[in-house]
Design goal:
Elements lengths: L1 H9 L2 H4 L12 E2 H12 L2 E4 L1 H4 L3 E2 L8 H12 L1 E6 L2 E6 L7 E6 L10 E3 L5 E3 L5 E4 L6 E6 L2 E7 L8 E4 L4 H6 E3 L7 E4 L4 E3 L15 H4 L6 E3 L7 E3 L8 E4 L2 E2 L4 E2 L4 E2 L8 E5 L14 E5 L9 E6 L3 E11 L2 E10 L7 H11 L16 E19 L3 E19 L4 E22 L2 E19 L6 E20 L4 E20 L4 E21 L5 E12 L4 E13 L4 E12 L1 E4 L13 E4 L8 E14 L2 E16 L15 E16 L3 E15 L7 E3 L6 E11 L2 E10 L3 E2 L8 E4 L2 E3 L8 E2 L3 E15 L2 E10 L7 E8 L6 E7 L4 E9 L1
Amino acid sequence: MLKIRHLLMFLPLLFIVPNIFGQNENKSIELKKLLEDMALYHNVKFNYADKDIEGKLISPPEIFLPLKAKLVYIENRTHLSYKEVGGYIVIYSAPSIAKKRCAYIIDEVGDPVDRAVIQLPDNSKIVTRQDGYFELPATLTGSIFIDHLNYEPISINVKEFKDDCKAIVLKLEVLELQELITERYIATGISKKKDGSFTLKPKKFGILPGLIEPDVLLTMQQLPGISSIDETVSNINVRGGTHDQNLFLWNGIRLYQTGHFFGLISAINPNLGNEVKIFKNGTSAFYGESVSSAVDISSHTKDIGNSNFTFGSNMINVDFYTRIKASENANFEISARRSFTDAIEFPTYSKYSKRIFQNTIVTDLDQSTKINYQSDKEFYFYDFTGQYHQKIGSKHNLFVDFIGIRNNLDFTQGSVVITERSNLQQLTLGGSAGWNTQWNKKHSSEASFYTSYYNVDGNNSSIQSGQVMQQGNTILDMGLKIADHQKLTDRYQLHTGYQYNEIGIENSDQVNEPSYSRNIKEVLRTHALIGEVEYDTENKKLHSRAGVRLNYITKFGMVYPEPRLQVNYTLTPDWQLEGLAEMKSQSTSQIVELQGDFLGIEKRRWVLSNDKDVPVQKSRQLSIGATYKRNGWLISLENYYKRVKGITSGGQGFQDQLELLHDTGQYSVWGSEFLVQKQFKNFYTWLSYTLNDNNYKFDNFIPNKFPSSFEIEHTINTAAIYEWKKVKIALGSRWFTGKPFTPAISNAPEFVTPSSPVVQYAAPNSANIQTFFQVNFSASYVIKATEKSQLQLGLSVQNIFNRKNIINRYYRINSDNNGIEVVNTYALERTPNALIKFTF
């Protein structure tokens, strides 16, 4: 009943604006009334003398016409003219007015096309702006030619232009269609390409339930097969893999820290991305160091672009982004974001804080009883980026980038007698420099260098025992890449390259009572040779890419090839078949040594393979899929098999009888991903389903085969999205079966010794938590202040119905009574958020 009431609240909004103008061409209204309606609809102001418009009747124009097209419509029918003076549009009577010829360009969905080039018969050119509108000289004869990078060119004779502004529909460029399987894959700005990747264009991003900004790491979780078992961006599971098995790159810099607020917010500023590529399988051989997915985030653009500035805030942080055009061949881009949670606590922060700090040392990791001391926490985060782009001549581009990310938590416990302070800090710093050259239309080259630094430091001072524990995890990663791309013929392309990586990881622990100190540092150097061939048949029905990455780790003397394959075949105009296969590896991984590491909040440490108890992880994956697209319908089905060897039990986060045991093993996943989507003009809806059968195999455990801790067997996501000009509304839900856990077989502990009670467990991961269900809502509205500035307003609500979802469960011994207690970790409660962003 509550759901119906919410829908009824928004239903009238769909009819308010369209009724501003009449749609019956045979019914005339007063010109004054039409101008008043136009002022409201387009957020403009009119100025006129009453005598000029008094008594004039006019049939209202179509509602979807651009503002200038409506003004020409009025001008051609009333012999009144208009001009813009200050912030007003002045309507006045003119002695004689020649009728104007105008048009506006839209795409097949009905959205305006900006930056389309109109070439006139005299070879002069006109470029459309954001509304797609343009005018033609009244005396013009002949044909005009319209061209745009993303659309098929078209020629139109000016005789086809009448008194009304002509609507010109451009079709997507045929060559672009050959590269795409589909556009608007679950959201505007997301597309699936023939190379098997998903591409996200943040600047064209529409809206998704629960999101009001194009947060890359939250958006990718809407794709079938990608989820987060604990709803964070620091624990993203792609086809059953762990988060550390994903490769995250920002402008070529590898990121080891992906989240703020310990995973509830992406560490990547939503203003940054120009293009994001996401590979689940069939990854290009140029991507290494991952056995799961690859996420390549780029803010680089081909052109210099104009200067602009964006400033915004939500209920957690403020941010800004600016691009400064230094010259015709150079620009700077700078962004920064900082939370204000250490100064102001909005409801969003309160809900996030309650979610992330439950069952940690901040809320007493080992006790359930009331404590007799006061505690306080102060948390903040920030990130910043910078980019310099220099065009050198017509062939060369130089890019220099840097990024910084930081989380800081101070936790104070105190009593009348003593006060102790604990602290947790995460820091990421990275930089890169790249050079690319387009030698000619068929040949290009690039070279780049990057360095990435990650550090997490924890200092835990216990007020009960007086014990002080200091922990550290530091990574220094440097890499070099050289690549060459050649189009050999119309059918063949050759890509070759070389990559070098040097990774050093240090782990340290220091305890005062009992006295203990440890410091371990390891370094690995890897060389990789890369070769890829792309092939297209003459009719473009078959597109394929085959490649190999040949890795060599100097420390182990280990050489291992990684073949990659991607094939896409257009069976009919409506059907496409796809096959993907790959072998990949990685030498870095995360482990959980103690559940209380880093205050129990950041439990995972990065470690390097040693070719012994921490081997190099290797994966194999095969998938076969089909896509059907026609009349606004999109249906996609993909089946896959994935196996990863070399995983460690310490990387799986066991909280049962396996927690302190060590073994190496593998996991195997069989799965299916299904999506059905229906698109209308301004409304579309979709439903996705994912099946995931994920099982471990550890030879030295009993039993040696059991369900993975990251198995979510069934997942269903739904969304209904309405996008109309400046208004976007999204309502959706997420349902999935609960993650596996190991239940206790008795409510009473087993005493190995009189002073050491332990929990008696059933078989590992033999039960499941209750199903997860959440309904989310988002809405945004854009107010066009001027031609080059706009104000964006947004609202989101996660978990609208405030369902109490459990996302983790384990057991522990209560130290007060030696009893067994169940510890549940709960998902976010109902969490509102709001956004305001100004761009000029």
